[in-house]
Every structure is written in structure tokens, then in C-alpha cells.
Design brief:
448 residues; alpha/beta; 434 Repressor (Amino-terminal Domain)
């Protein structure tokens, strides 16, 4: 996400770091590049103008230009202003009703129905009992889509045939109250563009159920149009928050950097993938750090805690230390890593791993390499996975042919897997903690 914007901003700030001392002219040159990068990212013109002005005002002060690390101070100021632009602090959901009601609105195609399910799944993981209410009576199969999403996530979906959307919403809230659901998520109809009929229907539903939250679901990839849509909906419905979908496909970032400043409405969640758990709470500081290549380790840790089976991870670690680690176990580790999402997203959360220091094809090549390793292991027999030492030349040719790889690929996998086993043997041996047997540098069998 934000690849283009991140590249431009990081490149301009990196040029500042190459200078020992900074002058006002140096800062102005860097800010011209920042301004151009933001405009090309489809950030609102007024937002760009005010952002650059605030950064310049702080960056040309004597305490910055006269400091020992002026470039670092400028980067810090840019980061602080990005955080401010994105909303300063995490804006959580207000769920005070009994049940609490969340009304989702937005244009057709923005991802409301999928977001309703994703949000329900997220709330369920947090200990809530959400009920999904299908109020889109116009789009073909809209209710069926919500039922399918709900079924996959283990969520109950309320529908009512032959009723108006406001009546369905009201009946859904009553059903939740009667059956003990503590949160109601209402999926409403959209249109291809903003029109008064849609707004009137949404206003009627709002008056009927008095929601705790009115969240606009908007496609981040529409850029400045997303901001215009947010303004229209906010004028009519008094939004309490925004959900930006398809942020993983947004290379520019204009919507995320404009919507909070232009509308005053906080971004509460972002959709970062097609999987039903790819909805993340929005943290302004973390997002600003990702844009500037500083990483987002906290989100990565939270994602790992959510996706990786901790008992399974502990079991694999114990097997490694007991020297019982097999290729079957290694395959399980690969599958656990891939649950976290595409490698380019994961690398983007690590400080220093950005597109300036990493070749553009590296993440894609690593993803392919993981798939090749997985294919090679799956082409082995159960006995070969448990005892790779029995894999002779003819077996290696068979594995390569079965996995669509080369004998050299199989040789490399087996060699590096054996190095890891030797490393674990050294770590678990008496008096050898922290060292491999050879004392040399050993590589983990991960794609390079």
C-alpha cells in the first residue's frame, strides 16, 4: 500500500540525510518534492498546501537547522505532521447501546457487505456477539452474499422478506435484543453514485434505530473521489467514522491522507486484503511510520498472535531443540507464515525494509520461492519428509519433476534444511548454547 507515495517521500527525505548541515534552501527543495509527491498521490490540494506549510514552519527554526542532526529532525517533523493528518490517535468504536448498533453506508461496489462480515468477525474475536442485518433489498443476491459471508465466519444473519429497509433494520435490532446479541451491524443498499433517494433511505434507517456508529465504507483506490463521497455522506448523515477498503491495492494514498483532514471524520478501520480477517483497526502513527519506511512492528506482532497457533509454534520449537524437526514440520512453518499475508505487506511492516532498499521484485520472488519449497516438500513421500537423508539422486530427480523445479533446487533445500538441523543440534547440545557446531554462519532455509 502507498508504494508510490512511500518511494517519493522516502527518496526526498533520504537526500536530506546525505547532507551534514541543512540550509533553508535544502529544506525548501525537499518540501517541493514532498509537495509534488502528495499531489501525485491525489491528496487534496488544500491539505497538501497546509501540510507543507506546517512542516516548513517547524523545520526552518533555529533549533532544527542548528542541531547536530538536522535531517533527522526534519524527518521527525514530517512523521509528526503525517500522524496529525491521519488523525493523531486511534479512534475506536463507541458501543454503548443495548444492543449497540453500527450502520454501514456507502456507494455500490465499495465493499459494504464484505466489510459487515469482516467487522462482525473482528468483534466476535474480541468477545462480542454480533448480529448481521441485511437491509439491501435492491442488489441481486445481496442478502445471499451476506449469508454466505456470515456462514464462513460463524455469524448469524437476520433477513426479512417483503419489508422496507427501515423496517428490516428495526426488526433486526429487536431480534438482537430478544436473543441476546450485543452488537447489530446493518448492511444497507448503495448506488453507483450519490443520490437523494439513497440518502433519504439511510436517514430513515438512522432515525429508526438510533445507531451508536454510522460508518462510511469507501474504496481507497478512488482517491479524491472517496473524499468527495465522504463529504456528501457526512453532510446528510453525520458520520462517526470511515472504513477504507482495498487499501492494499492503493499505491497512491490520497484518500487516507485527505479524508480525515477534509471531513473531520476519523478513519476507524482499513481493509488490507480479500480474506475475511483482513480488516485492521486504523492507527495513525503506525500508518505514518509505514509510509516513511519506519515499519509497523506492533501490527505485525498482533497479526502473528491472531493468525499463528501459539501451541503449535511452541510444539515445533520444542521439536527443533530435541532434534526431531522434520520437513513436515518445516512445511507447517511455511503455512503459518503465509497465513500472515503477502510477503510484500509483511516486509513493509519491518523497519528498513522498503522499496528503496529492497528490489521491487524481491517480495514477489520470495513468494514464488516459498511456493516452490512447499511444492518440493509435498512431492516427497512421508518417509522422505521424516528422513531426508534417504533422498538419493534418483529420488531427487523424481521430486524435482513432481514439483516442477530443478534438481539444484532440491539439493539447495535439503542442504539448507540440514544446516538448520545442525544448528539446532549445536544449540541444544551441552555447553554449546548460542553456537553452531562449526561456529560458522548458517542460513535459515528461507527464500533469499
Amino acid at each position: 500500500m502507498f508504494n508510490t507515495l512511500s518511494e517519493r517521500l522516502q527518496a526526498s527525505l533520504r537526500r536530506l540525510r546525505s547532507k551534514g548541515r541543512l540550509s533553508e534552501a535544502d529544506v525548501d527543495q525537499a518540501l517541493r518534492e514532498v509537495r509534488l509527491a502528495l499531489l501525485e498521490a491525489d491528496v487534496n490540494f488544500k491539505v497538501v498546501k497546509e501540510f507543507v506549510a506546517r512542516v516548513r514552519e517547524k523545520a526552518v527554526g533555529e533549533e532544527v537547522l542548528g542541531s547536530f542532526t538536522p535531517a533527522q529532525q526534519v524527518v521527525k517533523i514530517v512523521h509528526q505532521e503525517l500522524v496529525r493528518l491521519l488523525g493523531s490517535e486511534r479512534a475506536g468504536l463507541r458501543l454503548s447501546g443495548h444492543p449497540a448498533v453500527i450502520l454501514l453506508v456507502g456507494l455500490q461496489g465499495s465493499g459494504k457487505t464484505t466489510t459487515a462480515g469482516k467487522l462482525g468477525g473482528l468483534l466476535r474475536r474480541e468477545g462480542h456477539r454480533p448480529l448481521l442485518v441485511a437491509c439491501d433489498i435492491y442488489r441481486p443476491a445481496a442478502r445471499e452474499q451476506l449469508k454466505i459471508v456470515g456462514q464462513k465466519l460463524g455469524l448469524t444473519v437476520f433477513t426479512l422478506e417483503g419489508a422496507a429497509p427501515a423496517d428490516i433494520a428495526g426488526a433486526g435490532v429487536e431480534e438482537a435484543r430478544r436473543r441476546g446479541f450485543d452488537v447489530v451491524i446493518i448492511d444497507t443498499a448503495g448506488r453507483l453514485h450519490v443520490d437523494e433517494e439513497m440518502m433519504e433511505e439511510a436517514r430513515t434507517i438512522r432515525q429508526r434505530v438510533s445507531p451508536d456508529e454510522v460508518l462510511l465504507v469507501v474504496d481507497a483506490m478512488t482517491g479524491q473521489d472517496a473524499v468527495n463521497v465522504a463529504q456528501e455522506f457526512h453532510r446528510s448523515l453525520q458520520l462517526t467514522g470511515v472504513v477504507l477498503t482495498k487499501l492494499d491495492g492503493d499505491a497512491r494514498g490520497g484518500a487516507a491522507l485527505s479524508v480525515r483532514e477534509v471531513t473531520g471524520v476519523p478513519i476507524k478501520f482499513v481493509g488490507v486484503g480479500e480474506k475475511l480477517d483482513d480488516l485492521e483497526p486504523f492507527f495513525p502513527e503506525r500508518m505514518a511510520s509505514r509510509i516513511l519506511g519506519m515499519g509497523d512492528v506492533l501490527t505485525l506482532i498482533e497479526k502473528a498472535q491472531r493468525q499463528i497457533d501459539q501451541d503449535e509454534a511452541r510444539r515445533l520449537t520444542e521439536k527443533m531443540l530435541r532434534r526431531e524437526f522434520t520437513l513436515d514440520d518445516f512445511l507447517e512453518q511455511i503455512q503459518q507464515v503465509r497465513k500472515l499475508g503477502p510477503l510484500d505487506q509483511l516486509l513493509g511492516m519491518l523497519p528498513g525494509f522498503n522499496r528503496l532498499t529492497l528490489p521491487q521484485t524481491a517480495a514477489a520472488e520470495s513468494e514464488k520461492q516459498l511456493k516452490r519449497v512447499e511444492a518440493m516438500i509435498r512431492s516427497m513421500t512421508p518417509q522422505e519428509r521424516r528422513h531426508p537423508e534417504i533422498i538419493d539422486a534418483s529420488r531427487r530427480r523424481r521430486i524435482a519433476q513432481g514439483s516442477g523445479t530443478t534438481v539444484q533446487d532440491v539439493n539447495r533445500l535439503l542442504k539448507e534444511f540440514e544446516q538448520v538441523r545442525q544448528l539446532m543440534k549445536g544449540l541444544s547440545g551441552p555447553g554449546k548454547a548460542g553456537k553452531g557446531r562449526s561456529g560458522g554462519r548458517l542460513r535459515l532455509p528461507f527464500p533469499r
